[in-house]
Amino acid sequence: MVGGALSAWLVQRVSALLLAAYALFFPVWVALHWPLDFAVWRGLFAPLPMRIVTLLFVVALALHAWVGMRDIFMDYVQPLGLRLALHVGALLWLATCVVWAGAVLWSLP
């Protein structure tokens, strides 16, 4: 695939920007709303835009992790069957984490 390396590079960079933005926002929000209790946490994730941004963060984290793990598997795991099993396992695990995060975010009242 000609665009494979370029698209992986782009996914890695764009996801890193999303992760950095969320990582800068979150500690500031926590510092401004200290001390934290359940009501404060619920208030943070109650608005729809925050749920969407948080889910985008989780998706970006999963994509970022996938590109890194895929590169590691391709570079260091030589047996094709094992590499394929690791790819499938990693994809299933990351997809499960994203779906679970979405279920948690949308189960909030």
UniProtKB/TrEMBL annotation:
GO cellular component: a single term: plasma membrane
Molecular function via GO: electron transfer activity; heme binding; metal ion binding
Chief site of localization: membrane
Keywords, ordered alphabetically: Cell inner membrane, Cell membrane, Electron transport, Heme, Iron, Membrane, Metal-binding, Transmembrane, Transmembrane helix, Transport, Tricarboxylic acid cycle
Gene Ontology process terms (BP): cytochrome complex assembly; tricarboxylic acid cycle
Domain of life the protein comes from: Bacteria
Keyword Cytoplasm: no
InterPro entries: SQR/QFR_C/D, Succ_DH_anchor, SuccDH_FuR_B_TM-su
Keyword Protease in record: no
SUPFAM superfamilies the UniProt entry points to: Fumarate reductase respiratory complex transmembrane subunits (SSF81343)
Positions annotated to bind heme: H64
Cofactor mode of binding and number, as noted: The heme is bound between the two transmembrane subunits.
Stored Pfam families: Sdh_cyt
Pathway it works in: Carbohydrate metabolism; tricarboxylic acid cycle
Compartment(s): Cell inner membrane
Essential cofactor(s): heme
Transmembrane annotation, as ranges: 16-36, 48-68, 80-106
Entry membrane topology: Multi-pass membrane protein
Binding site for a ubiquinone: Y76
Span of the signal peptide: none
Function: Membrane-anchoring subunit of succinate dehydrogenase (SDH).
Protein name, per record: Succinate dehydrogenase hydrophobic membrane anchor subunit
Organism, as annotated: Sulfuriferula plumbiphila
